[in-house]
Design a protein that fits this description.
heterotrimer, A alpha/beta (about 350), B alpha/beta (about 325), C mainly alpha (about 280), A: about 350 residues, 4-stranded antiparallel sheet, about 35% helix, B: about 325 residues, alpha/beta, 8-stranded mixed sheet, 12 helices, about 30% helix, globular
């Protein structure tokens, strides 16, 4: 099966100037990333802010052009596409933003905003058809009764409702891939699961692939239960593989630290968990990453080799881990932490 | 000294808008015990931020505290005059606001912010004394004091700014510290770190803390007791263990089961159906009824119940059917 | 329909805007219907010259015995038409330049802004004076063009910065990902967000155009039409020595007050326009 999306050795380097006369700084937002996504697959890209996950989302949707490397959609480099082919690509890759209020035009009603792509991609010929299609979509994403939402302005709806509208908009053009960048982080906790379930539902019903970008590991479990995960740190992928396996047995020390820090809604377990002792709390400046392994200044297990060489992604069973000492690092388990 | 450092008694906050009157907080009663860490959990529209702003009497207009009392050490702070209020703020009670990282003056250095804060509330400390204390506090929150003091806010990361704000809130040795969403917009690792620091401050300095959040998952780690707010009312109050493992209000139970978790079985999580009520056009009766399993199954009449009942010692709830929930 | 209803509801709420709207409507009525109600004052009657207001001549007479009120009413049509055209042309030029600059960016933007900056620094009234001496102005359209040719720079810059900030917004990004065409993004997505800005500026430009047009006429540079207020003022000053006292003062004050009132109407109305056009405030 041909992969739907391929990122081959993709780099995204931003140029930055601190002041008018300061020297130019190169910020490697994304460095040497390789990703393969099959049709209908879900990939969770996880990492803290500054790790490059949002940049990857913007590159996949064609908003940013990588400084080097190729992004191939259905076998073709997206930046070499012209005219009809590019238009087809545009239709096939859609985005769901984090801030549902900012992602909708405040001066237009929901109907006006959502009918535009339908007309553009010829999914509807006139107002009646457009409304019918939108009502169908709204029913699917749980916005019932749909007529109630079409003529409202974004500010008249709640955050959860707007987020569903964003999803409906993305689905309306029948894409093959949806990039969701923190889609639930601005939504109330009690509503998050229903949104995630909805996305998982859309994935299985329509075979739409998802790239789910988040810093919240707990939510990643809900949408990518049968999917994969890629953990990023300072622009590089440090661990990737089947999500459930990776979260059950994290091998990279950064992922282990992340898992120790995620809050658990269970007081007894929460109290017993001890954070992994990181040598430094603060993220290094992405314009000036550490030599060798980017995680080494904070890593509690770092040795000399870690300061010299950048670790490549090594195959470990079904997973890939970028760590020189992966075999030596103690396995991380929930209960083990609890007894410390 | 009295057991309760702060008491909310039937506090109601109303906003008069074109459309009608919005009751952001409705007859909320809550006690904060001296020396404890109290967590208040509430989603959007619950009224928790408005409640927090009443403690320093800084409800943003057009909001007004239309009724109730807020007793600090037995004295109603709503009746304080300007001078007393100035001494009360930051000296007795300090607050770390939501997205505090953005509340620092971007054009002056951190050390001047400390000096300004001190000057605004307390004139008895010399500049040197203030900076000496600031240095100690910054080290306490594990920051490089000299580097931070000489920086501008934009030169610090989100986590560093949050720790700086926490240090600033401790400048005048407050007895009560209120934190509104102290860790939102911060990364998970920084979040855990800050909660750790707060726990340390509590252990070392004995400051009473009240922190408000929409994320029920962070309660478990440091809170002693917790309160749950919904649609402007306090619907449940008790120790963290009681409220988590033996919830006596259907909303609390729903909320805990709806929070995504790393450890639980994925299929056990359930969202709460429906959405919060419109605070201007409140439905009559119990505000949670429409989304409540008991009401929808016919077990509950859905009567209005705004008062907290002491169902069990130290465990309060507003749900009339709490006995059904008692496993 | 509901948008129009809610638009007026907001205007009604804001007393100042409501007053402004009433004033503007009165002028509009006067310009459209007035000339049909009040007969034109073409008959000269030197016996009745420079009379004070009376029941026969509500605002007195001019230096040639003609009814002032009638001249005022007939003149208003020309005044408003010229102001409207000036506003329209200014807006169109500013919109095109500002949008092209903001959307295309790069060298095109740099060149356009360079031109804009030059136009901004050179004062517009002297330029208009020179132009009106050089170009024969005989109809409202030409007059409108002359008035607009040096007035679009400020608005162009403002529109450009609005476009630049809109470009960064998530919903514009979403429009691009959805494959919507560039004309659609500019006119259907961005434009509705700057309508209130444009509308307010339009009113203010009209205000300025009236002042400028009257100014040019007072200076005698635009022998345009005899019933224009500017003409009235010019006649008042040159033919009757109105500025030096005497009963001609009424004849002088009428157009002046007319201009002042119109400007007040514009200002007040513009105040409420922002609130009325903002969907968020409208539906509260």
């Amino acid at each position: 099966m041909e992969p739907l999306l391929e990122l081959e050795n993709v780099n995204m380097i931003f140029e930055n100037r601190a002041g008018l006369f300061a020297p130019k700084r190169m910020v490697g937002a994304v460095v040497g990333v390789n990703i393969q996504l099959n049709p209908g697959e879900i990939l969770a890209v996880v990492g803290e802010s500054g790790c490059g996950k949002t940049t990857i989302g913007k590159m996949v949707t064609g908003l940013f052009k990588p400084t080097s490397g190729r992004i191939k959609f259905m076998g073709k480099d997206i930046w070499s596409l012209k005219g009809r082919d590019f238009f087809e690509y545009r239709k096939s890759v859609q985005m769901v933003h984090q801030d549902s209020y900012a992602a909708l035009n405040p001066a237009r009603t929901i109907y006006q905003s959502l009918s535009a792509p339908l007309f553009r991609h010829k999914f509807a010929k006139d107002k009646k058809e457009a409304r019918a299609r939108l009502e169908e979509l709204f029913n699917m994403v749980g916005l019932t009764p749909p007529e109630q939402f079409l003529d409202k302005y974004p500010h008249q709806l709640s955050g959860g409702q707007r987020q569903r509208i964003l999803l409906a908009r993305a689905l309306s053009v029948q894409p093959k891939l949806i990039v969701a960048d923190e889609p639930v982080s601005m939504v109330d906790v009690s509503l998050r699961i229903s949104l995630l379930d909805l996305m998982a539902d859309m994935n299985s019903k329509f075979n739409v692939a998802f790239i789910y970008i988040t810093h919240d590991l707990a939510t990643a479990r809900y949408i990518a239960t049968h999917g994969r995960i890629a953990v990023m740190y300072l622009g590089k992928i440090v661990e990737t593989g089947n999500l459930n396996k990776v979260l059950a047995e994290p091998r990279h020390p950064y992922l282990q630290a992340l898992l120790s820090a995620v809050p658990i809604p269970d007081p007894k377990i929460a109290r017993a968990m001890k954070p992994l002792p990181l040598r430094s709390l603060d993220m290094p400046d992405p314009a000036d990453p550490p030599q060798g392994c980017r995680f080494n200044p904070r890593c509690p297990y770092a040795e000399a080799i870690c300061e010299r060489e950048e670790p490549p992604l090594i195959q470990l069973g079904d997973e890939l881990v970028a760590c020189h000492l992966v075999e030596k690092i103690p396995k991380w388990k929930w209960t083990e932490e609890a007894t410390v | 000294m009295a057991e309760n450092i702060l008491q909310f008694k039937n506090v109601t906050v109303e906003f008069k808008l074109h459309r009608g009157v919005l009751r952001a907080v409705d007859r909320a009663s809550l006690d904060v015990k001296r020396g404890e860490i109290l967590g208040v959990v509430g989603e959007s529209g619950s009224g928790k931020s408005t409640l927090a702003s009443t403690v320093l009497n800084i409800v943003s207009s057009p909001g007004e505290i239309s009724s109730g009392e807020i007793l600090y050490n037995g004295k109603d702070i709503l009746k304080l005059n300007d001078e007393e209020l100035r001494r009360y703020r930051w000296n007795d009670v300090a607050m770390v606001f939501q997205a505090a990282q953005n509340s620092m003056n971007p054009v002056i250095k951190i050390k001047e912010q400390f000096l300004e804060t001190a000057a605004a509330h307390n004139i008895h400390m010399s500049d040197n004394d203030v900076l000496y204390k600031a240095r100690r506090l910054l080290e306490y929150v594990r920051l490089e004091a000299d580097q931070v003091l000489n920086s501008y806010p934009h030169q610090l990361s989100g986590g560093m700014k949050q720790r700086t704000i926490i240090a600033m809130s401790l400048l005048l040795d407050p007895k009560l510290l209120i934190l509104d969403e102290p860790t939102t917009a911060l990364d998970v690792i920084t979040q855990a770190y800050i909660m750790d620091i707060l726990k340390g401050i509590h252990a070392d300095l004995g400051i009473t803390m009240m922190f408000l959040t929409h994320d029920v998952s962070i309660m478990g780690k440091i809170a002693d007791r917790m309160a749950v707010m919904y649609a402007g009312q306090v619907v449940e109050l008790g120790t963290v263990d009681d409220v988590f493992y033996n919830s006596l209000h259907p909303y609390t139970k729903g909320l805990i089961h709806a929070a995504p978790s790393l450890t639980d079985d994925v299929s056990k999580r359930r969202p709460i159906p429906g959405s919060p009520p419109d605070l201007i056009n409140l439905p009559p009766g119990c505000r949670f009824a429409k989304r409540c399993g008991f009401y929808n199954a016919g077990f509950c009449s859905g009567e209005e119940q705004g008062e907290l009942i002491e169902a069990k010692p130290g465990h309060f709830t507003t749900c009339l059917e709490w006995e059904r929930m008692d496993a | 329909m509901s948008t129009i209803k809610s638009f007026f509801r907001v205007i009604n709420r804001n007393k100042q805007a409501f007053a402004g709207l009433i004033i503007l409507l009165i002028f509009l009525f006067m310009a459209l219907v007035g000339p049909y109600i009040i007969p034109p004052a073409t008959q000269t009657n030197y016996a009745e010259r420079l009379q004070l207001p009376s029941s026969k001549h509500l605002l007195g007479t001019d230096y040639a015995g003609r009814d002032t009120l009638s001249q005022f009413v007939h003149g208003s049509r020309n005044v408003l038409v010229v102001a409207f055209l000036a506003g329209l042309f200014t807006l169109l030029i500013a919109f095109v330049i500002g949008t092209v600059s903001g959307v295309v960016g790069g060298t095109v933007d740099a060149i356009l802004m360079f031109i804009t900056n030059i136009i901004l620094t050179v004062p517009s009234f002297p330029i208009m004076m020179v132009l009106s001496m050089v170009i024969k102005i005989s109809d409202p359209v030409t007059f409108g063009l002359v008035l607009s040719i040096w007035s679009w720079a400020g608005l162009a810059r403002a529109i450009r910065s609005q476009i630049l900030s809109l470009r960064q917004r998530d919903f514009i990004e979403a429009s691009r990902v959805l494959g919507l065409s560039l004309p659609h993004i500019i006119f259907a997505e961005m434009l509705p967000n700057i309508t209130s800005y444009i509308a307010i500026n339009f009113i203010m430009i009209m205000r300025g155009a009236i002042t400028a047009s009257v100014g040019l006429m007072v200076l005698g540079l635009v022998p345009f039409s005899s019933t224009h207020w500017g003409m009235m003022l010019q006649m008042a000053i040159s033919n009757t020595g109105a500025l030096y006292g005497s009963s001609a003062i009424i004849y002088f004050l009428v157009p002046v007050l007319g201009i002042v009132l119109f400007q007040i109407g514009c200002l007040f109305f513009a105040n409420g326009l922002d609130e009325a056009l903002n969907p968020r405030l409208r539906t509260q």
